[in-house]
């Protein structure tokens, strides 16, 4: 049997499932490494009440890689209306993941069991088996803890790091061993698309994970965001995104960047509906090349529901293209 190329996708938030759904239908072995530092919405409430790893990002990834019929996935994704006071705002999938985490004594085993039940095509690894806290230092010297607090502060972030939510005695955060093995065996490592400071970096800031990515012989591809994010990446160029990643890991580890060059029509966007975004990411190709990046600029834009997103098929086609070029 031919070796299936191994692709590891690292991130969280809403961008990760988009890429995974496209990769699911390719002849590749996909591993999703998912952040466990989310503390907003339904995930945050469950995390506070029953001290489980926040399930929201994991739920969306399970659905993206599942081969179950749509009806079953719709039930898993169903979110109770706010008028249902007891369950208000909770997605059924979040409750199932939380229950299984309690039953199995941890999120990792729970997700592996659910992966079998949901006919997952690939592997889903929470980056750690415990809830993590994201911490940030801002350029004005102040510090904050908690992903939603950091985003809401609307200050320029200087650096982020993660700590264990369970104990604050300075123990280094340990990743799930399978995450490190997957990274070491990868043919391609994909970062993003997703929030730079709150979806991608929380994974890489676990020192063993960052080190494994830096030491990997695989091509590391960063899918640059189309829009800047309020309170996180205001006025960032594509080169600024890469600079932040490289700076956090102490070396130029990003090999290739996918950059959208299709203009976003200004009058199309609904900034109230998509209240996280501020403006299209500006281009600085010289700045990217100065960081030893291969730049692939193309039309990766998909306009949908008055928002600007990545076109899944175009992004996945480019990832497949890189895979074949590297391994020819």
Automatic annotation (TrEMBL):
Database matches in InterPro entries: CofD, CofD-like_dom_sf, Gluconeogen_factor
Main location: cytoplasm
Subcellular location: Cytoplasm
Domain of life: Bacteria
Alphabetical list of SUPFAM superfamilies matching this protein: CofD-like
Key words of the record: Cytoplasm
Family: Belongs to the gluconeogenesis factor family.
PANTHER family: GLUCONEOGENESIS FACTOR-RELATED, UNCHARACTERIZED PROTEIN YVCK-RELATED
Known role: Required for morphogenesis under gluconeogenic growth conditions.
Matches recorded under NCBIfam families: CofD_related
Name of this protein: Putative gluconeogenesis factor
Lineage, opening ranks: Bacteria, Bacillati, Bacillota, Bacilli, Lactobacillales
Gene this chain is encoded by: yvcK
